């Protein structure tokens, strides 16, 4: 397997072959997770710390379950009650964690670049579980696995990403990954929710859902991230749903076998019609949740292999 990374901080530095390596291994973990006995000893003897400065029930639970199924000792740090709330700097936190000798550190933080800073101060492997508006690499990887299993490939597809592009780290990671895998990407949403300089990404931009969805293989809806908005980005949720919420009529402009995705949590009746979200013939939203555990298992497995190899070379080096 080809995977050279020491950390998983984003998609940007992954080569297409490394992405394929993660997806191939994750496919094997999907099979494991569907068995009666789901345990593996791949991370036996290793310690995984989950440190979430932002709440995310879905992502944290997925990482915790992934680590436990691989046999790691998993600890969830309650940041809300930690020294961070008492004024400890991020660097102090990193040095404290490093002294505990963890092997895998999973971090979610509201500031872009915070996870990269932590990674530069610790000796373990760091996984980015979302940092500000920067990246959310495992979400993009699980989306890619979901698409590949539904469509039989992850190349040369027309993929529409719809909604709040400007505030979405999910959108950014997906743009990078899907671009690396040679897909045609369309961004659909109001101009107020498009980031500046989006034309540099080599994508098509639409403010009309029906035109943007025409002939799409994949329709990926995004959550309105109201917690990151500091102004009037949309007239009202009702008006937003009328123009940009996905319903059966708008979806009819995509290909008849187009799949519907959403990273969650969903605002039903705002970004997507509830009945459509639950339509087992079109929606793969629950598949995304299942793929999330398998992808995170694959990422931690591969990083652990590299970490063990690095430590082994250091031991050999001290003996020479």
Please provide a written account of the structure.
This protein is an alpha/beta fold. It contains eleven helices and nine strands. It has helices at residues 16-33, 57-69, 90-99, 114-119, 137-151, 169-180, 209-213, 237-244, 248-251, 274-277, 285-319; strands at residues 47-52, 73-77, 104-109, 125-131, 158-162, 184-188, 204-206, 218-221, 259-261. Strands 7-6-5-8-9 form a five-stranded parallel sheet. It has a four-stranded parallel sheet with strand order 2-1-3-4. Strand 5 (158-162), helix 6 and strand 6 form a beta-alpha-beta unit.
Write the SSE topology.
Blueprint: H1 16-33, E1 47-52, H2 57-69, E2 73-77, H3 90-99, E3 104-109, H4 114-119, E4 125-131, H5 137-151, E5 158-162, H6 169-180, E6 184-188, E7 204-206, H7 209-213, E8 218-221, H8 237-244, H9 248-251, E9 259-261, H10 274-277, H11 285-319
Parallel strand pairs: 1-2, 1-3, 3-4, 5-6, 5-8, 6-7, 8-9
Helix pairs in contact: 1-5, 1-11, 2-11, 5-6, 5-11
């Amino acid at each position: 397997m080809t995977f050279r990374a020491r950390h998983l901080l984003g998609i940007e530095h992954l080569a297409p072959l490394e992405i394929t390596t993660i997806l191939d291994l994750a496919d094997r973990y999907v099979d494991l997770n569907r068995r009666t006995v789901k345990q593996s000893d791949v991370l036996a003897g290793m310690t995984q710390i989950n440190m979430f400065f932002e709440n995310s029930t879905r992502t944290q639970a997925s990482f915790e379950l992934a680590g436990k199924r691989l046999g790691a000792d998993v600890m969830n740090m309650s940041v809300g009650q930690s020294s961070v709330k008492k004024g400890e700097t991020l660097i102090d936190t990193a040095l404290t964690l490093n002294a505990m000798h963890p092997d895998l550190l999973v971090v979610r933080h509201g500031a872009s670049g915070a996870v990269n800073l932590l990674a530069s101060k610790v000796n373990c492997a760091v996984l980015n579980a979302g940092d500000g508006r920067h990246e959310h690499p495992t979400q993009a990887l699980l989306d890619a696995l979901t698409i590949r299993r539904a469509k039989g490939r992850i190349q040369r597809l027309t993929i529409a990403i719809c909604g709040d592009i400007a505030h979405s780290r999910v959108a950014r990671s997906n743009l990078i990954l899907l671009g690396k895998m040679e897909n045609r990407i369309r961004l659909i949403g109001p101009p107020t929710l498009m980031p500046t300089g989006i034309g540099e990404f080599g994508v098509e931009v639409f403010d009309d859902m029906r035109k943007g969805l025409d002939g799409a293989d994949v329709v990926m809806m995004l959550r309105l991230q109201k917690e990151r908005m500091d102004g009037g980005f949309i007239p009202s949720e009702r008006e937003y749903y009328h123009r940009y919420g996905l319903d059966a009529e708008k979806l009819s402009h995509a290909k008849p076998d187009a799949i519907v995705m959403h990273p969650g949590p969903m605002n039903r009746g705002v970004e997507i019609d509830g009945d459509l979200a639950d339509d087992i013939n079109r929606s793969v939203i629950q598949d995304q949740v299942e793929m999330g555990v398998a992808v995170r298992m694959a990422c931690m497995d591969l990083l652990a292999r590299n970490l063990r190899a690095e430590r082994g070379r250091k031991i050999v080096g001290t003996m020479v």
